[in-house]
Amino acid sequence: RSELMPDMMCDVLQVLLQAQKELLNYSGLGISILEMSHRSSDFNKILNKTESLLRELLNIPGNYKVLFLQGGGSGQFSAVPLNLIGLKGDRCADYLVTGTWSAKAAKEAEKYGKVNVVHPKLHSYTKIPEPSSWTLTPSASYVYYCCNETVHGVEFSFTPEAKGVELVCDMSSNFLSRPVDVSKFGLIFAGAQKNVGCAGVTVVIVREDLLGHALKECPVVLDYKVQAEMSSLYNTPPCFSIYITCLVLEWIKNNGGSAAMEMLNKQKSSRIYDIIDSSNGFYVCPVDVSCRSRMNVPFRVGRKDGDEALEKKFLDGAHERGMISLKGHRSVGGIRASLYNAVTLEDAEALADYMTHFLREHHY
Ligand code: PLP
To answer: How many Å lie between the centroid of ligand 1 and the Cα of residue 252?
Structure first.
C-alpha cells in the first residue's frame, strides 16, 4: 500500500484502540467521556475540535454553521422540510428520488408541503435519470437528493445543477469519502455511522442565511437556528459519538484527508467491479456503470436475478473467511459489499480474491 497511499496510512483500528485506552480515564481526568457533563470545558474542547477538524477537512466556508445533532439521517428527513420548505411562499420542494433513502425523505417532506419529484418515476433504482429529463421548479424552496443510495448502490458522480434554488444533500453513506465543494450547497447532512464515527450523531452543515425559516410546528430540537445559536448544546448532545467522530476525523486528516480517501475508495471499489465485469455474467451488478457506488457494491451471484442457493453458499464461504455483513439489504436481496472509509484496501482485496476463487469453483 505504501506506493498507493501516504506512508502514514494505517488501520482505523487505531481509533478504537485510542477510545479503549481513554475509556476509563480521559486525558488524565480520572473519568470517562461517558460520565462527563456536556457543559464541562473538557467536553467543549472536544466539540470545538470536532468542528474545526471538519471545517478543515471539507474546507467549509465561514458562512456555514456545523451542527452535531441526534435523530439520525431519518431525523433530517423531517428536519429539512421543517426548517426549509417555508423559505418561499409556495411551501414546495423538489426531490430527486433515486433509491430507498431519497424516497423516504420525499415521503416525509409531503407532511409539510408540496413535493415535486423532478424526473420520470423510476421502475428500478439502478440509474440516475439524465439531468436533461428533470423539470425543476423555480419557486421550490430547495432541491433535495441523496448522493449515495446505500441500499441500491447508486451514487452521484456529479453535483446537480439546482438553477438558483438551494441544494440539499443527504451524504450519510459517502460523507468524507471524496472531496466536496460545500459552497454549492445550502445544506448537507450525514449520519456519522458509516464513514465518520458511530451511530448517535448526525452532522448538519447549513448556510447561515437559511436559518430562522422553520415552520412554527418544528420541534425545537430540530430547529437549526436554535441549535446553531446554542452550538449544538440546546439539549444534551451525543457526547461519546461526537468524541468518536473527533478521533475518526483526526485519523482521516492524518491519512491525507478526503482526497486520499477518494483515491483509496476508487481502488477498493474498482477491485470488486473489475471482478464482476470480467466474470462473464456469473456476478451481476444491476447498477448503470455511470452511477455505480464506490461505497456500496450490490451484486447477484449465478444469474441476473440471483441464484439464491449459490448466494447462500457465497455468504457462508465468506463468513468462514471472516467476512461478515455481505448480505444485501432485505428489500433487494443478493450481496452488498460496503466499502466505507474504515475498510482497508487489503480487506477489499481479500473479498476480491474470494470472489475469484468462488467463480472458478462454480462457473459453468
Ligand atoms: N440516508 C442514508 C443514505 C442512509 O444510508 C441511511 C441509513 O442507512 C439513512 C439516511 C437513515 O439514517 P438513520 O438510520 O441514521 O436514521
So the answer is: 21
72 lines ligand 1 (CB under 6 A): yes
Q: Is-contact 334 126, C-beta < 8 A?
A: no
- Is the distance from the beta carbon of residue 74 to the nearest atom of ligand 1 less than 6 Å? yes
Which ipTM was obtained for this model? Answer: 0.99
Distance CA 155, CA 291 (A): 5
The answer, yes or no, to whether any atom of ligand 1 lies below 6 A from the CB of 160, is no
Residue 146 Cα: closest atom of ligand 1: 3
C-beta 98 within 6 A of ligand 1:
no
Q: Secondary structure of 100-147 in the HEC alphabet?
A: HHHHHHHHHHCCCCEEEECCCCCCCCCCCCCHHHCCCCCCCCEEEEEC
Cβ atoms of residues 142 and 186 within 8 Å: yes
Q: What are 252-283's pLDDT values in tens digits?
A: 999 999 999 999 999 999 999 999 999 999 99
Q: Is the predicted pLDDT of residue 26 greater than 60, yes or no?
A: yes
Whole-prediction pTM? 0.96
Which atom of ligand 1 is found nearest the CA of 77? 10
String of DSSP letters for 209-248: GGTT---TTS-GGG-HHHHHHTTT-SS---HHHHHHHHHH
User: How does pLDDT run across 39-75, given as a tens digit for each residue?
Assistant: 999 999 999 999 999 999 999 999 999 999 999 999 9
Q: Which atom of ligand 1 is nearest to the CA of 148?
A: 3
Catalytic positions are: 101, 170, 194
Return the residue whose CA atom lies nearest to atom 7 of ligand 1.
73
Residue carrying the nine cell digits 420548505: 85
